[in-house]
Input
Amino acid sequence: MTRGLLSAGVHVFIVALSLTSSSTSMAAQSIFDGWVRHSEYVAMRDGVKLAVDYYRPTKEGALHSKPLPVVWRFTPYGRYQTGADGKVSDQNAILDVSSGSNGKAIFEHLLQQGYVVAQADIRGYNASFGISEIWLGPQQGHDAFDLTEWFSAQHWGTENVGMLGRSYLGSVQLMAASYASPHLKAIVPEMAQIDHFSLFSRNGVLRNDLVVSWDKMRSAMDVAAIVPKPFSVAPVMADTSRADLLTASDEHKLNTRLADSILQMPVRDSTDPATGTKHHIESSVLFKLPQLEQSGVAIYHLSGWYDDSIRDHLTLLRNLNNPQKIHIGPYFHQDNFGFDYLTETRRWFDYWLKGKDNGIMDEPRVTYYVVGQKPLEGWHHSSQWPEPDLDELVLHLSGEKSGSARSFNDGTLSYEEPQGSSDGKDVYLVDETLSLGDLITRNTGAFRRDACPVSKNIADVGEVCYLSSGYPDLSDTYDAKAITYTSAELRVDVVVAGFPEVKVFVSSNREDADLFFVLTEVTPEGVSQFVSDGAIRASHRSLNKPSFDNFGLPWHGNFSPDLTDLGPEPALISLALKPIANLFEKGNRIRLTIAGYDAKSGVPLESTEDKKIIIHMGGDYRSNLSLPIK
Output
């Protein structure tokens, strides 16, 4: 039997009597009780065939014959797979290898509520033909357009089509919307990215972990075996001999390895030597905002404070006039606990694809969680983000000892601006053993995952998921090996709700330096809990005027003409950290930790042996941390 799938035949919904999902409301509102799966190849405008599965609802075994809206996913991870025996023993099963918008439950729920659902393999991947030259770009936008038009033209579909999915499956929705199919009316992107360069490089600090992980996964998935393997890509139904699958698989051998592309493009305007295109620009929805807005597609964003996508979702919310809503939780990449995801997603599609006036657009535009507040009190609502009329708390870096850290310097974050004309400085010998952890592990929250199941029931979710990021204590493993600046104990609760921003004057005994900034909350017991972070290669510090509203924050274009050596003279590094809504409790402290190396979070510069980073503070070089507070 296929892994994690239901029994064979026309499927019947199983409704568990539990508050951990939407099953209670699903049972009360059930329209259909099963489904039938179909699969086939669909030709794109250039003749390349993509593998598509679609599921049509049934009631008491009878296939529904009238048109219904289609909601679909476009995936590089496999639309369907074999079971443990290498066979497809259940032709009607829904793949069950993920959760949330990539999972099985949302497809079941939509089928039950009167939708056709579908899933297609991306060009060059799994059972689809063609080759893949890049991570995600215009080709996927064209293909998504063609598939959307195909769905809307089928006798079982209507002219209103929606998309959903997380991560890559979220990003491809936004790319699809920027190509403006007239029938794509609503999307639900979860943890999606819009900036191709920033996905792989943190202002010049390359994310090699993602590149290596992707290439390793693709090498295992994209070349089908003559003898079917357990849990491997499945052919479309008519391909009983697997001939089409094997032919498509042969084409995938020409796919470009991500490493061969990304490693050759260190700046935003780099040209890919293999294709002659500027992938970081041409493959970024960030530079297609007018087209995305013109599409009019309604967008329901799902993101989390600890996912790398959060800034991208907020940027879209800020810049587009499309109908939009956003839900931001205390989430890492695979979380969506604490709210009824199934019902909320279905309500969005009911409104935009079925024309049901269910009030969803009368509800607050922004829902977000303040980390550190109690589960029943932490959800807040507003019409925009950041909320208007925030105050600014500016903390100045000082060489005075805080008495709270065992770090290289134990500096202070002071409420008072340094007086006098002298340039205070901390000279730091870079520690090559230092790491906050690889970015994939950090972004997925693997260290706390068991405590945070996908559930709308508060009782099922550990308090750590609401009260803090759940990172291990950083006081010894990170802060002690870096430079720290720590405030006095807070006299009142402080809610930081927006983009923390650092302005730090830096110099070095080398021509360049990597800088990692980490914002933490420190308890009276000395536990240093991660709140937010950011990174930059100092040569990428030049600021540019963006073509979009960047919240008034510094924006680094990371273009080749802007690269500037660092050297011995102080240079200003202005950097917005990841946005956050966090309660710093009375009696706790605010800490900024600065490091010059991360062994797992990026490809370093040349050997850092005897490399020094100098933080300047005072005189003409007044460094500070700025926090937006409610």
Observations:
- Confidence is low (pLDDT under 50) at residues 1-28.
- The chain has two domains: 11-363, 391-629.
- The chain is about 20% helix and 25% strand.
- The longest strand covers residues 49-59.
